[in-house]
Amino acid sequence: MASGGAPTISAGDLEKYGYCPLNWWRSLGTSDGLGPETVEGERRHEEVAAELKGIEVHEIRAKESERMVMYFAVAATIVAVFGMAFFTPASVQITQILIIVALIWILAAVFFLYRAETLVTREQKLYAERTIVVFSIVAGIIAGVAVSFRETDPSLAQATVGAAVGWLVGASWFLVRSLKSLEVARSAREKHRVGDAAIPYVDSEVEKPKLFASKRHGLTGRPDAVLLAGEVHVPVEVKTGRTPRGPLFSHILQIAAYCLLMEEEFGKPPPYGIIRYDRASHEIEYNDDLRKMVLGKMDEMRTALARGGGVHRNHNRPGKCAGCSRREGCPERLA
User: Fold this and answer.
1) pLDDT tens track for 45-88
2) Any idea what DSSP says for residue 85?
3) Residue 196, exposed/middle/buried by CB under 10 A (0-12, 13-18, 19+)?
4) What span, in angstroms and rounded, lies between the C-alpha atoms of 247 and 254?
5) Are residues 129 and 23 in the same domain?
6) Could you tell me if 284 and 200 lie in one domain?
7) 20 to 30 A from 238, CA-CA: which of 72, 142, 218, 280?
8) Containing domain of residue 100, as a range?
9) 109 and 185 together in one domain
10) pTM here?
11) What is the C-alpha separation between 259 and 261, in angstroms, rounded?
12) Phi-psi region of 308 (alpha: psi -120 to 50; beta: other; left: phi over 0)
C-alpha cells in the first residue's frame, strides 16, 4: 500500500492502462485473456534475460582465464630459468643473455600487473591485462630457448623444456578460452546495444530478482534490466513484439515508472530510460513532466479501483483492439 493506504500499482499495470484502461481492468486478479502472443513474449523475454546475464558470466570467465594465462606463462618462465641450475653452460654468453631478456619481460609483466590494479576504466584494464599476457608468454618462450642451449645434460634439458612448454600450452588454452568468452560477451552487448555499461540487474521469471518498490508513491516493478552508467542506474525495458515507428505511449509510461523507481531506490533520478524493440532503441528523457504524468495516471487508476470500475476504451483504432491480448469478451472491442 502507498502512504495513506492507497493501493499499490505496478509498472506493468501502468503499461496496460496506458495501452487501454479496459485491458488493465480486465486483467485485474485474473490470468484470462492471455493469448499466444503473451506466452511467446514471455518466452522471448526469458531468452533476452539469459543472454544479458550471460554477458557478465562470460566476462568473468574471460577475466579468470586471463589470470590463468599469466600464471601459466610465468610458471613456464620460472621452470625454464630454474632448470638452468641443473646444467653446466655450453654457451654461457648466449644463455645469460637469454636469461636476462626473459627476466626483463617478466619484470615488465609484473609492472603491468601492478598498473592494471590502479587503472579506472574497463578499456584501460583490458589493455593492461592483454599486455601482461603477451609479456608473460614471450618471457616463457625466451626462457625455454635459453634452456635448449644447455647441452651438458640433454635429458634434464629436455625435461625442463618439456615442462616449460607444457605450462605454455596451458597458457595458450586459457588464452583461447578467454578470447571465446570475450567474443560471446561482445556479441551479446552489440545485439542488445548496452555498450560497455555494467548490468547489475536482469529480470527473470526463473530467478525473480529484487522487486523495486516505492512506499511513498505505492509503485512497484521489475525492469527487464538496469544499466549502471557511471553512478546512474538506467532502467531498460525490452519489447519483443513488432517494432513501431516510434515508442508507444504505454511503453513510455512504463519506462517512466521504472525511472521513478530508480530515483526512489538510489536517490538519484536517471537522465533517461531505454525502450528496446527488435529493430530500434529509444532513450526516453526522464523529467518532471514525465514524472507528473506517471503519478497522474496512477491517481486515475486508484480512482477507478475506488469506484469499482467505470473505465472505458481510450482509442478508436480497430487495429489496436485486434492486437489486444484481452480482446475476447471485451464489451467495447472494435475488432
Assistant:
1) 677 777 777 777 777 777 777 667 667 766 766 666 665 555 44
2) G
3) exposed
4) 11
5) no
6) yes
7) 218
8) 54-192
9) yes
10) 0.68
11) 5
12) left
